[in-house]
TrEMBL record:
Keywords: Cytoplasm, DNA damage, DNA repair, DNA replication, DNA-binding, DNA-directed DNA polymerase, Magnesium, Metal-binding, Mutator protein, Nucleotidyltransferase, Transferase. Transmembrane segments: none annotated. The active site is at 128. It comes from Nocardioides szechwanensis. It catalyses: DNA(n) + a 2'-deoxyribonucleoside 5'-triphosphate = DNA(n+1) + diphosphate. The keyword DNA repair applies. Binds 2 magnesium ions per subunit. It is found in: Cytoplasm. This is DNA polymerase IV. Its main location: cytoplasm.
Length: 420
DNA sequence: TCTGGGGTCCTAGGACCC
DNA sequence: TCTGGGGTCCTAGGACCC
C-alpha cells in the first residue's frame, strides 16, 4: 500500500470513502499531478543499489542541484542549492549527471497516461500537469479515484511515484499536491478552501518568491489569511498592480483559470503556444576578460539559438545579450532590428555590436548569453528584398549547415572560429 | 569552486504619435 | 502658449517559476 502522510484536514486516501459522493466530487474536478523528485527518481529507478542512498542530480562544476531524492533532502539538500553546499550537507550522497533524453522520454509517457484520462492536460513542465477531469468522471469515477488510478498506473509503468492535488481551481490544486508530497493525494473541497489556504505562509502563493515574501512579512502579512484581509489597493501599492491583484485572488482561491490543453515546449517536446523568445547562455569554467574567448562563445551560443529557431520555423527582431560579471552583477543589452531574422550571422553581428557597446576593458566575465525575442512564424516574416543583399548568402549557408547537422550531428559543421 | 539554464511577465521611463 | 492625456514601441532591470 502506498504511504499516506499524516497531514490533517483535507488529506484523503482510498481507505477514506466518506468524501467520495458524486455531488462533492463534481465540484473538485481539477487535478495537479506532480512527480516526486522527478529527475532523481528517473535517474535511480533502475538502480536498486541507490534505493537507500542519498542521491543528487546535477551539481557539476559551478553547478546547482537539479533534484535530490528524499533521503538527500533529510540532510537539508534542496533543488537550486549550490553543489558546494549540497556536498557539505551530505558528503556521502551519490551525484548523478542529468540525462535529459531519458527525462523527456519518461515525461512523454507520463503525459500520455494523463491524456488517456482526459484530453484537457496542461503540462507545466516535464514533471507536472493540470488535468480537468470533469468529462471523465462518468467513465472513471470520482476525481479522487482518478487520482489514485493515475498514481498506480505511473508507478507500475514508469517505476516512479507522484503526488496529486484535487480542487475546484488550479491554484488550490497546485498547493494541495505540494501538501500531498511525497506519494500522496490531498483533496480540498470548496467549503474547506479558506481553512486550507489561510494558515499557509504567503511564500506558498504562486508568484511570491524570496523578495516578495520578505516584503510582505515586513508589512506584517505573514499568512495567506493576512493577505486575504488586506484591501486590494494597499496590496497593490506594496507589490504592484498585477501581483497585488493576483495575490488577492489567490488568497481567496477564487481564480477561475481554465485549463488549456498543451504540452511543455521545454526540451523540444513541442506543441502548445509558440515560444516568445529563445536563448542560450553559459557560465564559463573560469571567469575571463579575453574578448576573443567571449566573442567565440557568443558565436557558439548564437548558432545554437538560431539553429533551434530554424528548426521551429520562427524568426525574431530583437537580439539581447546577457553579461554576468565575476561579482554576479548581471546586465542585459538589447537591440531591435528593422526585420526579423533567423540568420546566424545577422544575430551574431547584433550580439557583437551590443557587446562592444559595453566598452569593457578588463572586466572579469562569468557568463554570457544570447536571446532572440519577439518571435514570429517565419511565414509571417516578409524580408525587404534589397538588390545584391549579402544576407541571402548567409541564409543559404545556414540551410547547408542545418542539412549537414541533421545528417551528421551538431559536431559536424560549425563556424571556423569554433574549431579547436 | 558560493550562486545553472530555460523561460515568462511586470514595471518604469523616454520617445513618439495623435 | 506655460502645458493634457492616451497609446505604442523600445530598453533595462528585476522577480519569479521549473
Amino acid at each position: 500500500m502506498r504511504r499516506l502522510g499524516e497531514v490533517p484536514t483535507a488529506r484523503q486516501s482510498t481507505a477514506d470513502p466518506d468524501h467520495r459522493g458524486f455531488v462533492l466530487n463534481t465540484t473538485t474536478p481539477i487535478l495537479h499531478v506532480d512527480m516526486d523528485a522527478f529527475y532523481a527518481s528517473v535517474a535511480t529507478r533502475e538502480r536498486p543499489d541507490l534505493r537507500d542512498v542519498p542521491v543528487i542530480v546535477g551539481g557539476a562544476y559551478r553547478g546547482v542541484v537539479l533534484s535530490a531524492n528524499y533521503l538527500a533532502r533529510q540532510y537539508g539538500v534542496r533543488s537550486a542549492m549550490t553543489a558546494t553546499r549540497a556536498r557539505r550537507l551530505c558528503p556521502h550522497a551519490v551525484v548523478i549527471a542529468p540525462d535529459y533524453d531519458t527525462f523527456g522520454t519518461v515525461s512523454t509517457a507520463v503525459m500520455e497516461t494523463f491524456r488517456r484520462v482526459t484530453p484537457l492536460v496542461e503540462a507545466l513542465s516535464l514533471d507536472e500537469a493540470f488535468l480537468d477531469v470533469r468529462g471523465s468522471m462518468r467513465r472513471l469515477g470520482s476525481p479522487l479515484q482518478i487520482a489514485e488510478h493515475l498514481r498506480a498506473t505511473i508507478h507500475d509503468e514508469q517505476g516512479i511515484t507522484c503526488s496529486v492535488g484535487v480542487a475546484a481551481s488550479v491554484s488550490v490544486a497546485k498547493l494541495a499536491s505540494k501538501r500531498a508530497k511525497p506519494d500522496g493525494v490531498v483533496v480540498v473541497p470548496p467549503d474547506e478552501v479558506t481553512s486550507f489556504l489561510h494558515p499557509l505562509d504567503v511564500g506558498e502563493l504562486y508568484g511570491v518568491g524570496e523578495k516578495t515574501q520578505a516584503m510582505l512579512h515586513r508589512l506584517g502579512l505573514v499568512r495567506v489569511g493576512d493577505v486575504a484581509h488586506t484591501p486590494l489597493r494597499t496590496l497593490q501599492r506594496a507589490v504592484g498592480d498585477a501581483l497585488g491583484r493576483q495575490l488577492h485572488d489567490l488568497s481567496w482561491g477564487t481564480d477561475r483559470r481554465e485549463i488549456v490543453a498543451r504540452t511543455a515546449t521545454a526540451f523540444g517536446l513541442g506543441g502548445g503556444d509558440p515560444d516568445k523568445s529563445m536563448g542560450a547562455q553559459e557560465t564559463f569554467g573560469r571567469d575571463t576578460d579575453d574578448r576573443a574567448v567571449i566573442l567565440r562563445e557568443l558565436l557558439r551560443l548564437t548558432a545554437k539559438v538560431t539553429g533551434r529557431m530554424r528548426t521551429a520555423g520562427v524568426a525574431g527582431r530583437t537580439v539581447a545579450i546577457t553579461v554576468r560579471f565575476a561579482d554576479f552583477t548581471t546586465i542585459t543589452r538589447s537591440r531591435t532590428l528593422p526585420e526579423a531574422t533567423d540568420v546566424t550571422q545577422e544575430v551574431y553581428r547584433a550580439a557583437t555590436a551590443l557587446y562592444d557597446g559595453l566598452g569593457l576593458q578588463r572586466a572579469r566575465i562569468r557568463l554570457v548569453g544570447v536571446r532572440v525575442e519577439g518571435l514570429l512564424p517565419r511565414a509571417r516574416v516578409h524580408r525587404q528584398l534589397v538588390l545584391g543583399e549579402r544576407e541571402h548568402g548567409w541564409a543559404e549557408a545556414d540551410r547547408a549547415v542545418d542539412r549537414a547537422t541533421r545528417r551528421f550531428g551538431s559536431a559536424a559543421v560549425r563556424p571556423a572560429s569554433l574549431i579547436d
